[in-house]
Amino acid sequence: MNSTYLFIATGITISILIGYSRYSIKKSRSKVEPHRPFPHQWRSLLMQHVAFYNRLNPLEKTRFENRVHVFLLNVQIVGIGTEITHLDRILIASGAIIPIFGFDSWHYSNLKVIEVHPDKFLIPNTQQYANGLVGWGKMEGKVKLSRKALVHGFYDNNDQKNVAIHEFVHILDMQDGSIDGKLELIMKEIDIKPWLQIIHTKMNAIHVGNSSIRDYGSTSHAEFLAVVSEFFFESPDKMKAEHPELYQKLDQFYNPKHPQKNLPKEQSKKESKDPREVKSALMN
Questions:
Q1: Could you tell me if 52 and 164 are in contact, meaning their C-beta atoms sit under 8 angstroms apart?
Q2: What is the dihedral angle through the alpha carbons of 117, 170, 10, 222, rounded to the nearest 10 degrees?
Q3: Rounded to an integer, what distance in angstroms lies between the CA atom of residue 55 and that of residue 233?
Q4: Which residues contact 237 (CB under 8 A, 6 or more apart)?
Q5: pLDDT tens-place string over residues 89-124
Q6: Over the stretch 158-207, which tens digit does the pLDDT of each residue have?
Q7: Taking the C-alpha atoms of 173, 180, 55 and 104 in order, what is their torsion angle to the nearest 10 degrees?
Q8: Residue 54: CA atoms inside 13 Å, Cβ hemisphere, count?
Q9: What's 105-126 look like in SS3?
Q10: What are the structural domain ranges in the chain?
Q11: Which residue of 170, 209, 251, 276 has the fewest C-beta atoms within 10 A of its own C-beta?
């Protein structure tokens, strides 16, 4: 693969070299803010298709709508061989906002374009197909998604699969300069070691077939984080009942009491170490 095209892929398993990503989730002084009320049609789509939204109280729903609105005003969504619908926009924006909803007024400041393909698409310079990609190099600032996988992710809330949430969790994982399953800009130092212990224990349980976490969570630490995040946001009650310690940790990470204190103002300045090989994300 050409080294200028680096991806996290959903739909396949490939090895890639990761360089420093300048994706940043931070406050942006230049972001476009809504000047009109949230469209009623969009609210109806949220109510029909996004379980996370329906679990929120009225004030939280208003805040979620505003975050979705801001996202859609600041990120271009284009169809590749297909026309973009309002449902596409709402599902993509929801998948982006859900992982960062606990961090008030923060957004994907360097994300520019999201490409929507009808189904799995060919990864550039390979013969492999994916449901989702996050790009680096010449592809930095771009995410690719399969509409089929996108819609299915919000249609079935019991399969632990949501390609949009999965890909945006990978972007969140990038913020410390490496994709390693540790949200070091969110987790406190004292949280890292217990979190790694949980990963080790849960991945071993998956390996021996003694876990309700889907198999791909045992591929790597990065994929474990993305997979259990899908589980956490899609079926929180089920995770809380079956994996209480894991649920508690994820709840601490994604719903901090003081979110503005947990994300440094200048995240993009922390560079990664030497490039490393990681596995891409697989959605069976």
A1: no
A2: 180
A3: 11
A4: none
A5: 999 999 999 999 998 867 787 889 999 999 999 988
A6: 888 999 999 999 988 887 778 899 988 788 777 888 999 999 999 999 99
A7: -30
A8: 12
A9: CCEECCCCEEEEECCCEECCCC
A10: 7-279
A11: 209
Amino acid at the residue 280:
S
Q: How far is CA 281 from CA 119, 133, 137, 247, 256, in A?
A: 16, 9, 19, 21, 26
Alpha-carbon distances, residue 67 vs 8, 59, 193, 212, 236 (angstroms): 25, 13, 32, 32, 21
Between strands 142-146 and 132-135, the pairing is antiparallel
Distance (Å, whole) CA 251 – CA 263: 16
Class of domain 7-279: alpha beta
Q: What is the DSSP string of 80-92?
A: SSS---HHHHHHH
